[in-house]
Write a structure and sequence with these properties.
This protein is α/β, with parallel strands linked by helices. Helix content is 53%, strand content 15%. The protein is built from 10 helices and 8 strands. Helix 7 (160-170) crosses helix 10. The two termini are 25 Å apart.
């Protein structure tokens, strides 16, 4: 059996000591390798284009720039690069912003010492990874008014197939990926999405995505 190549990781952080620490941690793992490092948006994009990473670890606060700009630029210029934000900021609302910008995960630097490898592998596996505090923020925003901030409260309205679609949405799958996974057409998945939004009183695609992420992090995933 052919051995799988290690996942290629780009580190973008304006603190050399942070980059060195991350490199030290990642180089111990046989399934991960650091392919480059950068300190700002411009060098981050150019390094990504030159090294073709599978995932970029991005700090929100970069030299003379903001990590959100890098996330948006990578989404356009290197669309296949997954982004995991590792930030010193604990504001949960910031996690929501970076996910909307195109990142697939958010973890604080305080948590990173314990969970960075778990976060990296989750994002590489196609999932969306949120720190506990960020996940609770998303839960509180999408939970029905008067509920106990638990996104499981109203999911019982969904059919088994709609629950499966919700689960895959929460793991970061797009409509076409879900259609392929479930072996149905794209219009069928779009119909499921519309039904889910109607049953859960969600206004738009962003609310649907937030609910799906919150539901997965709340322990609602069905597996399989």
């Amino acid at each position: 059996m052919k051995k799988r190549s290690p996942a290629r990781i780009l580190i973008v952080d304006d603190h050399p000591m942070i980059r060195e620490r991350l490199i030290e941690v990642l180089e111990r793992e046989q399934d991960l390798m650091v392919c480059g490092e950068a300190e700002d948006v411009q060098s981050g994009v150019s390094t990504a284009e030159n090294t073709n990473p599978d995932l970029a670890i991005v700090d929100v606060s970069l030299r003379h720039s903001h990590g959100l700009d890098l996330i948006k630029d990578l989404r356009v210029r290197c669309p296949n690069v997954l982004v995991l934000v590792v930030s010193m900021h604990e504001e949960a609302a910031l996690a929501e912003r970076v996910i909307h910008a195109g990142a697939r995960g958010y973890i604080t630097k305080q948590e990173a010492t314990r969970n960075i490898l778990k976060a990296i592998r989750a994002v590489l596996a196609g999932q969306i990874y949120l720190s506990d505090k960020a996940a609770m923020h998303v839960v509180s925003k999408v939970a029905p008014v008067g509920s106990t901030a638990n996104p499981r409260v109203s999911f019982e309205k969904l059919t088994d197939r709609e629950m499966r679609v919700l689960e895959l949405l929460g793991k970061g799958f797009g409509t076409r990926q879900i259609a392929t996974t479930l072996k149905v057409s794209v219009p069928t998945i779009e119909t499921y999405r519309a039904r889910i939004k109607e049953k859960l009183n969600l206004r738009d695609a962003n609310e649907l995505l937030q609910y799906a992420i919150a539901w997965n992090h709340g322990g609602g995933a069905t597996g399989g």
